[in-house]
Write a structure and sequence with these properties.
By secondary structure, the chain is of the alpha/beta class. It contains 8 helices and 9 strands. Helix 7 links the parallel strand 6 and strand 7. InterPro entries: HAD-like_hydrolase_sf, HAD-like_sf, HAD-SF_hydro_IA, HAD_2, HAD_sf, PGP-like_dom2.
């Protein structure tokens, strides 16, 4: 991968989602979700259902799927968190090319941060484990009560944009919530199809989403080489 990006590259600050964008965390998450469902007396989730549990706060996913009371939702969330942090958190893998991309952006003095629905302490631990934390100036995640929206989390990253204008900021993520939050905050969005969200969500209603199919295509997009970039 070349060391230099295009000199007049538009973006000076890039915000990354975590699950489904930087890391494939599906294995550990699904193990902890199925453990939680077993404790609660529910059947394991099917392959078709599993992606709907990755990305949003786990309390929201469990509550909506099984119509849980607030008390049961809190209990199941605590079961999940205990299992995930103690056993399954690090059962994840880097997407091909991520380290090379981050090295390239760092070399070119691009400011980077992470905005994730994952609880912030879990996100920091994961990034440290995979030796990614050093690339990011800001890491923001969900609060313990899972009350923050994705827009809240991304906005917390924008506090540190300094003199960078919003038209020089890009959000890269794999879900509809990433896209909608970007629109609310008036920043550009690039969607990745190799993650979780856009495999299940109806993106055809959003005519201005630009999608890439690999980490390599993120670099092509940043260098304005869009000959193979799909725009819906």
């Amino acid at each position: 991968m070349a060391k230099f990006l295009k000199k007049n590259m538009k973006y000076k600050y890039i915000i990354f989602d975590l699950d489904g964008t930087l890391l494939d965390t599906s294995e550990g998450l699904i193990k902890s979700i199925n453990y939680t469902l077993d404790v609660m007396g529910y059947p394991k989730i099917s392959d078709e259902e599993k992606y709907s549990f990755i990305g949003p706060p786990i309390k929201v996913s469990l509550k909506n799927k099984f119509n849980l009371s607030e008390e049961d939702a809190d209990f199941s969330t605590n079961v999940f968190r205990d299992r995930y942090k103690n056993y399954d958190l690090y059962e994840a893998k880097l997407y091909d090319g991520i380290i090379e991309l981050l090295e390239l952006l760092k070399f070119n003095n691009i400011k980077m941060s992470v905005a994730t629905y994952k609880r912030e302490d879990y996100a920091i631990s994961l990034l440290e484990y995979f030796k990614l934390k050093k690339y990011f100036e800001i890491i923001r995640g969900s609060d313990y009560l899972s009350k923050m929206t994705k827009t809240d989390i991304m906005d917390a990253c924008l506090i540190y944009k300094n003199n960078i204008s919003k038209n020089q900021i890009l959000m890269i993520g794999d879900s509809e919530s990433d896209y909608i939050s970007s629109k609310k905050l008036f920043i550009d969005f690039l969607g990745v199809t190799y993650g979780f969200g856009f495999k299940r969500e109806n993106i055809n209603k959003y005519k201005d989403i630009i999608l890439v199919n690999s980490v390599y295509e993120i670099k092509k997009f940043l260098n304005n080489k869009e000959d193979k970039i799909k725009c819906l």
